[in-house]
Amino acid sequence: MKQQFLSSLFALRSYFDWLPAQLVSILMLFALATVAFYASKLVSVIILRIFGNREDAVLRKIILAMRRPVRVMVVLAVLLSALPAASGFTWETTQLLQKLLLFIGILMVGYAAIVAFRIMTEAYLQRITSRDHSDDIMIRTHQTQIRVLRRLTEILVGIVTVATALMTFDSVRQYGVSLFASAGAASLIVGLSARGLLTNLLAGVQIAITQPIRMEDLIIINGDWAWVEEITSTYVVLRVWDWRRHIVPISYFLENRFENWTHNSAAIIGVVFLYVDYEAPIETIRGFLNEIIKTCPLWDGKVFDCQVADCDAQTLKIRIIASARNALQSWDLRCDIREKIIMRMRAECPEALPRSRFAMVPPRPGEEAWPSAEAISPVIDRPPPGSYMGPGSVMPRGGADL
Asked: What pLDDT does residue 383 have?
């Protein structure tokens, strides 16, 4: 078939012998590339119409994404097949064009593989996310594994694709062979310079398998609450409650301690501490709290308790625990409980509010009694009544005799 194709090209080229051979070769290749491009475009439109009415949206997305790289690969394949008929070029030029077209074709194949793999993984993530789950641990587990392994796969495919494409050139191939042959110090230097990158890449694989963190996990780092927003192959993006972002190397989570509040379950128990006076009616306050918790929609109905946990010289410390479905709801639930119980105590038992105390103790027998208020009040030298002479006047020391 290829021979028939080349024979047709030679026959077509014979009609243009009156033109320079190099110009005829360029025009012929350009015409073939144009025909191949529009033919592949027509085929892709037909395929999209065939699959357009089907429910398989993933296949349609793949076809849409593959249109451009497939068109480029079709054009490259036609040009590679037609190069032997381009007799207007020298042998060196023909070899260079073949290597260049092959180089671009290999890159297009790698690019198409990465795009198809990304579309399929995104479709899988959307499918598992759309399911109704009371606990999202399984969803976040799949998200973490797929996102991390997908990035590593894309990096690996990209490296292999570029390396394979570069090996089409003899100079690069000889350099690579000589580099591996000499190995030794060169490989050691490269390994040391890329130690940080390789450490994080291997840590990414370990994170995907062991999963100390997952997507949207709530963790405590450097005293901040933060959610795992993105896990790349080398670093993790953490979203703080005030929309700040922490960019942390992925190896940090294998080498340092941190708190993960949603590792096994998103549900969490929140704690509220309430300080009351010693005169506070504990049972009445406990009844208030039982009434309040039943009106809180954020309480999941599992855990609730109220105990006197501690005391000091001034107050009693009441510890209130209540469970919620996740950490954000737990925070709002604690704020709601704290606000409502304080308002209830102010309205119905104000004696329970904390206060400061001091005692007036009478003197012991034989001790001197406290001086009276008149005894300790300062003596003020006041002018006698009726001696005031208006603003600006000066009263002499013996003003009473004037």
From this structure: 56
pTM for the model stands at 0.54
Structure tokens at 360: 């007036």
Q: List, for residues 163-209, the tens digit of each pLDDT value.
A: 888 777 776 666 545 544 444 444 445 455 555 666 767 777 777 77
Cβ atoms 249, 233 nearer than 8 A: no
Residue 293 in this model has a pLDDT that exceeds 50: yes
Give tens-digit pLDDT for 247-273.
Answer: 998 888 888 888 888 877 778 888 999
3-state secondary structure 235-304: EEEEEECCCCEEEEECCHHHHCCCEECCCCCCCEEEEEEEEECCCCCHHHHHHHHHHHHHCCCCEEEEEE
